[in-house]
Amino acid sequence: MSEPEPFDPKDLEQITEIEDQNDRKQILGILSGTGYNINQIIGAGIFQSPGNIWWLVQSPGIALIFWAIGGVVSLFGSLVYIELGIRTYRSGIGEQIYIDEAFYCVNNLGHIFSLVAIFAIFPAGIIADSYTSAKYLLYAIEGNSYSSNDNKIILPAVTISILGIITVYHVFNNRLPVYINQTLALIKLFALLIISIVGLVKLITNDNNWKSIFDTYSPNLGDYTSAMIKILFAYGGVLKKSKILVARK
């Protein structure tokens, strides 16, 4: 048998050139990518979680500290995801690639994770967001008279309608979702800006808000743990930015 030819680095350069030529045209720029990240970070959790977290810890001061800790943890996690995305860019982006590299001795572990994510994790999150959107929409229409018990048929119907509309415009057009995401990102930023300004004004004009902010009626460790999980879930959108590095037509 003839000996195999030695590896030539130029062969790798040729393969890379072919891959670059076959790359499809990207549809997300810096501005649209920023809007996508804003929509992921400012999700339903950031509007739903604060009240639940305060109810768990029963202390404004402790709740603020938990939010700060969760933000720092999520920041480091986001930086790790960016590094992983850059490192495995040619092979793909996402948890499947990261798991395959980290646990290479276990066959198809990344594919198993992807299977669970596609059929359980991601659909559950989408349904939860659609349900929350439907509930807020009905509350905006009905006002204080809104009651989830009185909308056992209307609420699921609106939720399914929202899912259907989102699915349709994603199937038939790949530019329209970008424009919609940009618009929603601006609306979310504007809404949070108003909420923040109103909160700061109320905080300044009412000195009672500063008194006994660390008093708590819930010293239960389980409540604190649950609050931190909800905070990390609300911050979870920061881990999605690496997945748009290969957004293509």
TrEMBL record:
The domain of life is Eukaryota
Entry keywords, A to Z = Membrane, Transmembrane, Transmembrane helix
TM stretches of this protein: 62-82, 103-128, 153-172, 184-201, 221-239
Recorded hits in Gene3D superfamilies, A to Z, give:
Amino acid/polyamine transporter I (1.20.1740.10)
* InterPro entries, per the entry: AminoAcid_Transporter
User: From the UniProt record, which GO molecular function terms apply?
Assistant: L-amino acid transmembrane transporter activity
Q: State the protein's name.
A: 1588_t:CDS:1
